[in-house]
Amino acid sequence: MAAFHMLWMGLVLLGVLGFPETPAQSLDSVQPNFQQDKFLGRWYSAGLASNSSWFREKKTVLSMCKTVIAPSADGGLNLTSTFLRKNQCETKIMVLQPAGVPGQYIYNSPHWGSIHSVSVVETNYDEYALLFSRGTKGPGQDFRMATLYSRTQTLKDELKEKFTNFIKAQGLTEENIVFLPQPDKCIQE
Fold first, then answer.
1. Would residue 65 show up in a list of annotated catalytic residues for this protein?
2. Which of 5, 69, 95, 105 is buried deepest, with most CB atoms within 10 A?
3. pTM above 0.85, yes or no
4. Which residues lie closer than 8 Å to 63 by C-beta, 6 or more apart?
5. Pairing state of beta strands 104-109 and 41-50?
6. Are 159 and 128 in contact (CB under 8 A)?
7. Structural contact between residues 120 and 30, judged by C-beta atoms closer than 8 angstroms
8. Each residue's pLDDT tens digit, 4-59
9. Largest CA distance in the chain
10. What's the pLDDT tens digit per position in 73-127?
11. Can you give the three-state secondary structure of the chain, one letter per residue?
12. Which of 65, 118, 129, 146 is catalytic?
């Protein structure tokens, strides 16, 4: 069971931080005129989508987590995520470094031994944020993952539809999507 929880945490972080990429790969497009100060604050992971076979197998047992985003000293972001693991609340802090273009970030993963990227593709700052990552895990293994963040624990149908349409535009199907249920603890105030 511990291995399952480590894999789930890895998937959550990949959803937030993106799949491993080589430095030569370009980052995805970002929200035009991205304003990092408006992006800060509390978010809930409301939806995930991936072409990973592990994700498709485990998506029915995944649940929402809370992430608080704050500025870091280097102009990047600190992400403090709280989630349910082994019936207990856990918190992890990740630091994203700016990647030159506002809304694009890099994370050096000691766990994966690789560089991860994340792009804030679209946000209205008050309701939702859509993050997308792509990369390769090995020869011929193309990974794509998207995360839908919500400012509230309840996701509007229009945002589910927006997320679903975005996923389909990336070549994924509805079977690649999960809208995450709220756990009974860890994300409440």
1. yes
2. 105
3. no
4. 83, 84, 180, 181, 182, 183
5. unpaired
6. yes
7. yes
8. 333 334 444 444 433 333 333 344 689 999 999 999 999 999 999 988 777 888 88
9. 44
10. 989 999 999 998 888 899 999 888 899 899 998 877 666 556 667 899 999 999 9
11. CHHHHHHHHHHHHHHHHCCEECCCCCCCCCCCCCCHHHHCEEEEEEEEEECCHHHHHHHHHCCCCEEEEEECCCCCEEEEEEEEECCEEEEEEEEEEECCCCCEEEEEECCCCEEEEEEEEEECCCCEEEEEEEEEEECCEEEEEEEEEECCCCCCHHHHHHHHHHHHHCCCCHHHEEECCCCCCCCCC
12. 65
18 torsion bin: left (phi>0), alpha (psi -120 to 50), beta (else): left
